[in-house]
Design brief:
The structure is a single chain. The protein is an alpha/beta fold and 251 residues long. The protein has a single domain, classed as Rossmann fold. Helix content is 32%, strand content 29%. The chain has nine helices and 13 strands. It has helices at 11-16, 37-51, 64-73, 78-83, 112-115, 121-134, 146-151, 155-169, 193-197; strands at residues 5-6, 21-22, 26-31, 55-59, 87-91, 94-98, 103-107, 139-143, 175-181, 200-209, 212-222, 232-237, 240-244. The strands form three sheets. It has a nine-stranded mixed β-sheet with strand order 5-4-8-9-3-10-11-12-13, sandwiched between helices. Helix 6 packs parallel to helix 8 (155-169). The chain is globular and about 55 Å long. The model has no long low-confidence stretch (mean pLDDT 87). It binds adenosine-5'-triphosphate and magnesium ion. Magnesium ion (MG) is lined by residues 37-38, 143.
Length: 251
């Protein structure tokens, strides 16, 4: 049975993905700072808004005000979408606060589940799952896995945390996209554990070539689904991401 695809909202990326992300599965968007991870997830969410598929955006590194402001700059209408229930934004930031023994993490969500202390990843997963059910979300975005990874002590904990978090949230009717920050330097060691845990991985990059930087995206893997391997170029402009699947990358 061919898997059901859910459009990414970026036409060139849908070509690479042979139609879109895989419904009911998780896809990781990984890339360095400013490579376009958040904007890509907004295309996915507003594609859903247009099609009557509700979206839930959980951001762990930007406030709702900033997100709404930036989305509006690209011509989307987040406030209308939030008013009619097709978009819900949960944003919060992790803070370290003094505790009885040392420090503990607190997340700044204004939600009863997370006002209790200490903050835990399963508790965040519970909040996201409940919220997704409440707003009937078919498209779920977790923007910024970094804070969750910070909470994990060792590699097996990271695997359990991220895997358990995704499993707790996603069901066969919804599609989840997560973003993962890679370090800017080519030589930096990145934590690739989330690559193995998610069903699909798309990497965004900035290549220095012929005296300038070129934005590229590449599908690294997509479990159980066909996809194109080669990287494509894209630009970010006033309408967000514009991909060029037919353009040749400079040598
Ligand atoms: N109006 C615009 N026109 C052109 N490019 C823009 C515009 N707004 C943002 N950008 C580009 O998009 C980048 C930000 O994209 P985005 O926020 O999606 O990146 P990110 O990968 O999520 O970054 P971070 O890791 O910091 O969260 C900016 O650094 C800038 O290069
Ligand atoms: Mg971002």
């Amino acid at each position: 049975m061919p898997k059901t695809r859910v459009n990414s909202g970026v036409p060139g990326l849908d070509e690479l993905l042979m139609g879109g992300f895989v419904k009911g599965r998780s896809t990781l968007i990984a890339g360095g700072p400013g490579t376009g991870k958040s904007i890509l997830t907004w295309h996915f969410l507003f594609d859903g808004v247009e099609k009557g598929e509700n979206g839930l955006l959980v951001s762990l590194d930007q406030t709702s005000e900033m997100i709404i402001d930036d989305m509006s700059d690209f011509g989307w209408s987040p406030e209308d979408a939030m008013e009619n229930g097709s978009l819900t934004i949960l944003s919060g930031t992790l803070k370290l606060v003094p505790a009885e023994s040392g420090y503990e993490y607190v997340i700044g969500f204004d939600h009863p589940l997370l006002r209790e202390q200490p903050f835990t990843v399963p508790r965040l997963a519970e909040l996201v799952r409940k919220k997704a059910a409440e707003v009937n979300a078919r498209r779920i975005v977790i923007d910024g896995l970094g804070p969750l990874l910070e909470l994990a002590g060792n590699r097996s904990e990271i695997r359990q945390l991220v895997y358990g978090f995704i499993r707790d949230i996603v069901d066969s009717d919804s599609t989840i996209i997560l973003t993962h920050e890679l370090k800017a330097s080519d030589t930096a060691q990145n934590d690739e554990m989330p690559y193995f845990i998610c069903d699909g991985v798309v990497v965004l990059n900035m290549l220095y070539t012929s005296g300038d930087y070129v934005r590229t995206m590449r599908v690294v893997k997509m479990r159980g689904a066909n996809h194109t391997m080669h990287p494509i170029m894209f630009k970010i402009g006033t309408e967000g991401i514009n991909a060029f699947p037919d353009a040749r990358l400079p040598e």
